[in-house]
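In response to a reviewer's request, we include the raw inputs and outputs for one of the modeled complexes. The two entities were modeled together in a single run.
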Amino acid sequence: MTGVTAAVEVRGVTKWFGETTALDAVDLTVSPGDVHGLLGPNGAGKTTLLSAMFGLVLPDEGTLRLFGRTRAEAGAQWLDGVGGFVETPRFYPYLSGRRNLAVLAGLDGGDAATLIDDALKRAGLTGPVSRRKVRGYSLGMRQRLGLAAAMLRRPRLLILDEPANGMDPAGIRDLRTALRRLARDGVTVVISSHDMAQIEEICDSATILSEGKVLAAGRLDALRASAPDPVWRMRTSDDPGTLALAAPLSEVKAASHDDGGLVVHAAKEDMDAFVLALGKADIAVRGLDLDRTPLEALFFQLTGETKAEVNP
Amino acid sequence: MTLAAERWPAYVEPGARDSRAVVRPDSIAGALVVWRIELTKLSGMIQIRAMVLLSIIGPFLVLGFLNLQSATPGDTPFGQWVHAIGLAIPMTILGFGAQWILPAITGVVAGDIYSSEDHYGTWKTILTRSRTRGELFAGKFLAAVTWAVGIVLLLTVTDLIAGLVAGREPVVGLGGQLVPAGHATWLVAASYLSQLAPMLGFTALAALLSVATRNSIAGIGGTVVIAVLFQIVTLANMPAWAQQVLLSTPFMAWHGFWGAPPYYGPFLWGLVTCAAWFAVCTLAAWLIFRRRTIGAA
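The model returned the following structure tokens for the whole complex.
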């Protein structure tokens, strides 16, 4: 990407809140048109980093550039073409969804107000819902309104903090589709999420944060290549026989699971071979599920988290 | 949800914008945009509408109440004349309530205008739009000032009308002199308008409390408590210079307008006091607001 100005360039950004180091010399580069995922357990610094991108949190050290300009260099134009939200989108509860968008469009100026109807329609908040006061909105509806508010800015950089929180499955599906479409249109997206499947599905690159530090960053295929073997959940007709068959194999590590069945660590190709070997040994495979994708495995290995801690 | 259904209007580079594109205003214009939006939000609030309504009908309610009883509020300047002199009524209202009612009225807006964004968690919503912190701060502050000035002007008009409706007799001044009704009308108006300076001082103080505490109860209640404390302190045997630096003292500067002869020293010194409070509180509020962290802490 030499010669192309990064959409987001973070260099050595550090932020302290009292004694707590929220961000510790964070480096991050997001190329234009990329969909970049931020992964990390609770308290990793994801929201602080996204807040810094919006200028809501001012770094104590380091520089943060959006489209090649620091906040000091860009001045009032810093957030031109930048939309999104951090944490749950918040609105004036005593105003309707439509009135809230009108207030925000008023702050944006220009023709933003003419986009309100479209934004509400695309967010699925048309009709009486748009005229209801926001205090009556569910979390999923506020997320949708947050997306509508972001789209009023015609973003070329969309910064989203856990946008699928509170959404129903159909909403999450539509969100993924929308983000992919925006990326195809050249919009850069930075998205934080606990949902690694979502990150794997829609992101081109990712950064894994923990305790304010970057543990790993890069293109998803590169991250997958450096990841440990995926983890599989397996149910067979003869678990002791399966364990005995796996014992001499260095590329397959199997163990009994507390909830029944087996846990197997193996690369995809090695797993294929192992399943064929089980068949030859007259052991039926009754169930085989990918418990941790390579990216998940890398995440858990780097952060030392368990799956339950990340997705309670 | 149909977010993915169609291509969304794309961002337009500043240099290639068409007539529909976003125009980046300068800071003053940006602050005026925020000011206009804040006024729109204020106009939709029930408590603001109620206060405007009360400001309009309140003087006439007082007028009706006074007509129903024979006693007079004799411990208030002009209070002894309320049954005999129409224009004594607005001056009695002013003397009775200015030091705490007016700070409360401005506190309701200025003490809440920043902290309500903390309460609703909406700072991060509006700070991620096309307005800078400076524009948001200035626009909100301007809205609070507009409310303070507007409500004083409204009270000046309504109280004066109530007084004129009650009667157009000459007024007995604080020096015992008789002031003709025409001149007294102007003095009533000047007395009310003299409240603008301390009102703006309390507006800045309330805004500072709102920014510093991030709490509307502290912003509004704190303003009223400070006003009452000033009033209590005034009753103590304080040196003259200490009285003069209190923000509540200029509320009473109109006494000089009604003297025989009139004196304007307290009023002019009050302007200096109020300007100092206004400048210090506004600057402090801005310095706190400028560097504060929003959310994510």
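As requested, we also summarize the result in words. The first helix of chain B runs from residue 27 to 43. The radius of gyration of chain B is 23 Å.
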